[in-house]
Design brief:
The protein has two domains: 100 residues, no CATH class; 78 residues, no CATH class. It is 26% helix and 34% strand.
Length: 181
């Protein structure tokens, strides 16, 4: 892959200027896999701020979902990030991937896409369409913090009022009814 093509792909994925470069793209079953590696920009210690570091191995490669395109999952395979050790304070750390939350298998872009789908459809429909479990969708939704970004997300939406009622049949089968008032 030529350097220009890799730059074009990072731009299309919205990852331009994030310190990663594309090394390859391949179709793998129901997924499109984009191979990426770090560009090794200037790094300093997160604890003391010292630029006096030495290489201390590599972190494991990481595979994260970035979205969906043409009915296929778009996954990023981030090759082992460089680990560093500070000569001044001894802290060991890895390069950060700012577009993925720690220990998550989805980029922030994929989470935003899931939220856009959940805005108009039920959990079951989104689960079927995106191939994700209810639990995963629920976790993504629960990570959304109520704040200015959430208000931007809801801006322009019509306010609704819900009514909730419960009924039991012979004290065994419970039914919950949710209605828009």
């Amino acid at each position: 892959m030529t350097e220009g093509q890799g730059n074009d792909i990072t731009m299309l994925l919205g990852l331009e200027g994030k310190g990663f470069e594309v090394t390859g793209v391949q179709a793998e079953g129901r997924s499109l896999l984009v191979e990426m590696r770090s560009g090794h920009e200037e790094v300093s210690c997160p604890r003391c701020g010292s630029p006096s570091l030495y290489r201390h191995g590599k972190a494991r490669s990481r595979r994260v979902r970035h979205g969906w395109i043409l009915g296929k999952r778009l996954e990023l395979h981030i090759q082992g990030r460089q680990r560093w050790k500070c000569r001044d304070c001894g802290k060991t750390f890895s390069e950060t991937v700012e577009f993925v939350r720690g220990r998550c298998r989805y980029t922030k872009h994929a989470e935003a896409e899931v939220l856009r789908h959940l805005r108009a459809r039920s959990f079951r429909n989104v689960s079927r369409e995106l191939g994700m479990s209810y639990g995963t969708l629920r976790r993504i939704l629960s990570r959304v913090e109520a704040g200015p970004k959430m208000m931007e997300f809801l801006e322009g939406e019509e306010e609704i009022h819900l009514g909730i009622d419960e009924h039991s049949f012979s004290h065994h089968d419970m039914v919950i009814i949710v209605t828009e008032l």
